[in-house]
Amino acid sequence: CGMGGPDTRIMRPSGGAAAFFLTHDRTCVYDVDGTALDESVLHPVGFLAATAQGSLAAIHSMAPDAQANALEWVRLMWDTPMRTGKRRYYDNFLYAFSMLALSGNYHDRW
């Protein structure tokens, strides 16, 4: 189940989401067609962490900007402080796992 190399089923959607959110407001909620909704993301740090991890899958998609986009997401994640206040537990849990994955220190053999 995906342990034998890159899973092509997630490359394209991950790359599309990563590219989309580099050029759109990451605090806004969007419909599947890209229409902005009148809502704010409840877990902005968690959202950033998950998208940064997903951008790594997109590197293998061979999309023209996939590598540059992934590097930008890693930079965004690296420059993001841990969340404080309400909803910090969920966000910071994703933050920690994202940092492990992005640094190459989260493995399936644990």
UniProtKB/TrEMBL annotation:
Biological process, per Gene Ontology: carbohydrate metabolic process
Signal peptide range in chain numbering: none
Protein origin, superkingdom: Bacteria
Residues passing through the membrane, by range: none
Annotated InterPro entries: 6-hairpin_glycosidase_sf (IPR008928), 6hp_glycosidase-like_sf (IPR012341)
Name of the protein in question: CAZy families GH8 protein
Source organism of the structure: uncultured Bifidobacterium sp
